[in-house]
Amino acid sequence: MTITEAPATALLTDHYELTMLQAALASGTAHRRSVFELFGRKLPEGRRYGVVAGVGRALEAIEAFRFDTATLDFLADERVVDDTTLAWLADYRFSGDVRGYGEGEAYFPGSPLLVVESTFAEAVLLETVLLSIYNHDSAIASAASRMIAVAGGRPCIDMGSRRTHEEAAVAAARAAYVAGFGATSNLAARQRYGVPSTGTSAHAFTLLHDTEADAFRAQVSSLGAGTSLLVDTYDVAEAVRLAVEVAGPELGAVRLDSGDLGALAVEVREQLDSLGARDTRIIVTSDLDEFAIASLASAPVDGYGVGTRLVTGSGHPTSAFVYKLVAREDDEGRMVPVAKKSTNKLSVGGSKRAVRRLSDGVAVAEVIAVDADPEPGDGTTDRPLHRDLVVGGEIVGRETLEAARERHAAAFAELPLAARSMTRGEPLLPTVYQS
Amino acid sequence: MTITEAPATALLTDHYELTMLQAALASGTAHRRSVFELFGRKLPEGRRYGVVAGVGRALEAIEAFRFDTATLDFLADERVVDDTTLAWLADYRFSGDVRGYGEGEAYFPGSPLLVVESTFAEAVLLETVLLSIYNHDSAIASAASRMIAVAGGRPCIDMGSRRTHEEAAVAAARAAYVAGFGATSNLAARQRYGVPSTGTSAHAFTLLHDTEADAFRAQVSSLGAGTSLLVDTYDVAEAVRLAVEVAGPELGAVRLDSGDLGALAVEVREQLDSLGARDTRIIVTSDLDEFAIASLASAPVDGYGVGTRLVTGSGHPTSAFVYKLVAREDDEGRMVPVAKKSTNKLSVGGSKRAVRRLSDGVAVAEVIAVDADPEPGDGTTDRPLHRDLVVGGEIVGRETLEAARERHAAAFAELPLAARSMTRGEPLLPTVYQS
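Predict the joint structure of the above. Result:
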């Protein structure tokens, strides 16, 4: 067994972060106080809200962002940066402050999801890894939340590991759980994050045996009558009959992985009931997404296994978040708001705070104040959206995944009813800037 | 610094692989000789060929697929499987054979990309991690190859790390390099795989300084006149004038990251030439994909930086590969082809070999023989597509990334001319089964 150092996150980074650092160290600007903001300019087209995920993973990445000997040797050997920069990197440790939206929170265009305050040098280095985590995990959580919204309380299970990068699969299982999924197929997500995992068998197991009856008997004998039998390898009706014969009416579930799931579920439900297996659940798993789940609302289905469309963000595999310098110190030590002057990519300079404005408990606006605290409205209440995540380099924002999951459920419950509809439209809330 | 064990790949796996194993161990079928095949039923809609990537990473994952003490303790504590299964997993080591398409090879519907022969127990466990790697890496390589096809020899650079999971980013940089990209922004990809990395500065660097002139002077002073200056933070024409004033006509490149890139490139080229900076290159980087690259073919552009659309597979972030049991031993020790009988998911049973059939050096068919070697055609030549990757548990298929890159270039050159067109259509080659 190889023994190695814990995986550092420092090289999960774009080359230019280091060359900018080198040039800034040389010009004397590297240590200017700076404010970076992580946000999205817009939601994916037609989507009405987004869901923040990856916060806990981002905090781990900040903590592990160190340049160990092997990394420094690599950078030196390859002459990526000069010796002054290498010496500075050897002592790197983020010592600034980070506040941001809690994990599981809903977000809208312009929501200041993370505000990172430190020196330019310290904060710029975190850009790539923070964006990677937020862009990926939030894309999955945003898709997952919509699936939960239409599943009507029926459990959704992540089965997408095989359709995405093997490590992205673990993060996807975690993000889906934050957004309300009940379980995952991914064992590493259970080991690392405590996400419940489930699984029974694939078609290969049935095909391995000489007959379907042999396969069912082997599975029930080993995994118990509460297991889920896959009934669509050959003939569904015959398999359902056999499944109840083998497992008895205590059979936990049958799984359908092909065909017209809605029509099949009706037939299978009738057959199960007629065989006395009234408590046997029907799980469906073939190419589901939020639209397919919605279309199965009236079918007698007890759970959804979602794969490809979950782990690829259901058409939007990334969140298009950016990480922008919004303010920095000038020669006299004053903080100056800054923003690129580009025609098609609007940014608002300055350090921001945000609240969700509620009227009778329903969210009505995302209010963002620049270089100030948001002013309250008339007859509305404001819920602050920023939590302290890092203070003076110390990670203070750790929480359980259950806390993030609860935050998501609460934030979703607060959204206008249209959040439950899959109809395309504008963001559910207007983003209102105060300055 | 924390010291931990090297990351094992065994838990990057679906729960049901282990429960199937448990049931098969109990029923006595676990050790039946089995053949699994990794393949795609179809190409993404409109795509005309795909590119295999991830082969080298998959071989690493097979080698690292071990159940160490911490993993076994976890599985025991959580009662994922029974003691008999745990004991078997403790000794797990893949001892079978794997052959498959070389990394960088083109593929078509039904191409048997991997053929895994071993016992059921040994081979089924590899399903999830092999699919994760192949599905992700091939999606990136397939998109990258199309971008290279239309870039007309101009270099393409991967800048997508921030828009995908942080580890997927490293794999994406590697896959894009296999498909012909010249470099990546990702430093971990350089460290782990030797992919060339590049990078200079972002808008934040310009905004950090009091003036654009200060920023340019700082960058050129530290990184040299050969650097690339980002000229669209404020006014492009003024920035180009300033860039040449600061760096001289030896300025390496200017980068445009917004606006109408084609029109801007024409203006900037004229301005650079008029300032005597005839060798200064123009790099463009805003939301590019294969269609945007094609539309810039006549613009005076010297290189493309591609981000989001590369790392998300340009609309197809996964490859839809499956891993199916296609043959297994029966009670008498004979191998029996098997396949699921489902209406909408066709599989062909049996162990396969494949050749690319060529006529006058141009690929004309993907010929797949079942349980036999392909029969040659008339007046055509056949190029075998399988390489031995693992023999008796020994990894024999390791090769350099350069070898994979060369294989891709050769395989692409062999395809019909339509491979260079972005027009949607049917797969370029028919898949012909012989049995």
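Residues 127-151 of chain B form the longest helix (25 residues).
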